[in-house]
Amino acid sequence: MGVTKTEVFTTEQNRIADLAKAFAHPARVAILQYLVATKACVCGDLVDVLPLSQATVSQHLKELSRIGIIKGNVQPPRVCYCINEPVWEEARATFGDLLASFTQNTCC
Amino acid sequence: MGVTKTEVFTTEQNRIADLAKAFAHPARVAILQYLVATKACVCGDLVDVLPLSQATVSQHLKELSRIGIIKGNVQPPRVCYCINEPVWEEARATFGDLLASFTQNTCC
DNA sequence: ATTAATCATCGCAATATTGCGATTAACCAA
DNA sequence: TTGGTTAATCGCAATATTGCGATGATTAAT
Fold it and tell me: Which nucleotides of C are covered by protein (CB under 7 A)?
């Protein structure tokens, strides 16, 4: 019904899914790549860089903030965003472990 | 409008987003974890393992197949699935590189 | 106080996703 | 041929996501 049955999965599985959502849209990938490249807090630039409206960019930033992989600090009238290092590290460790956990199929 | 503007992003960004979608739902995470753990082709077991209906599981398997991260080989009346190693390796390299590309913020 | 700049939020529309029951298709065995 | 088994697909319903224009809120500057 368009509603994910989160309660029947483990906390870990739900967290992995949430972290993956940060990368599951090209606009969010572009945002994260830009923040990684600048290595610093970015203010209004993102709207100029992305081929999307200000409202849409703001929404993607909100979603990334919800996941925690970026953080915004208010410097009115600007809000500056940058990579939130602990969560980025969490993602690195999580996907690193998960993707390293497969070695080789014993069948086909 | 619920429709991602894929054409305004790079092929790489779209591919990253697609690979991330494989992990962006707890049911698909559970499926992949199970296939990794068994290291082999799994036939009907998945429906028994997951707390979802056969139709729903089949749909997630279809999505994972579309992305290419799993492959199914038909052994009627069964269809057996396993990790598709080249694409799994692609994901490992892609997210490995991407997540390693961030070092440290020079600001906050 | 007024204006300009910046960003969040609202409201809307359209498409996508998730989920399941029921059906269909394909195949094997008896 | 007739069942039985398995999995894909159909059809439907409900929620989620994506996108944008317009509006609002906030603050600095004039």
Answer: 4-11, 13-22, 25-28
